[in-house]
Amino acid sequence: MVQYYLPSGMRYATLDERKEFYTAEFNLAKIAEWFGGQLVRVKFAVIMGRHTQIYQEKYREDSDTTIIIDEYQSLSDVQNQILEFLPEAVYYDRNVYGPSGSKTGQELAFDLDPENITCPIHGSLADKMKNHQGLSFCALELQMVKEQAIRLYEYLAKQFSELRIVYSGRGFHIHVFDPEAFALSDAQRLGLARSVKAQSFGIDEWVTAGEMRLIRLPYSLNGLVSRIVLPLTKSELERFNPISDKRCIPKFL
After folding, report:
1. Would the pLDDT of 123 be above 90?
2. What is the largest CA-CA distance in the chain?
């Protein structure tokens, strides 16, 4: 098992802790609110143990697989399927699908992760990868990526009006819910991603460009760091400290 270095208080969640969280803390009402009550054709996904190597023995062969959850009757049904898999991560599909199942659009999102920050202590992502620490980050990198998220929000607010910020457990996501953003072409998304990167933001270009359609589900558990994926307003983000903020710390900690 690769042991990534993480800020103080962050650690891998055990299977028992994942079960405890998804049984007692997983907030279905807030998830429904996130989707605006419109759960028609939303697809969810889980990964059981790709990074932590913590998974149920019966799922060893599929521990690294992305498992899509697209057959369910309600969010409670989704919760039950998550409890069956006890995953390290839960996602939803940003694609919008029509009645025939064909893609009709995609939610625009920007992903800022601390490993993309060049740290004065730990170096660049390339340096971390050489040491097999590609997902590692320190408290300084966390603070630096938070500052980038604030600046990126302000940059995007000049072009879009319906922005939401989510603490992903490691970094930050900025979601765009302007109707016109859903209709952007792949070329337009790529152009936007590159223009943002040109402003020195360390985003994961492939998320914004649409190549990666999955994104962490708000209010799920990031099992790599034992933190709750938490939506925040901009003013909340400015005061937010994920190392100590009780809103993102699961009860098992």
Report:
1. no
2. 51
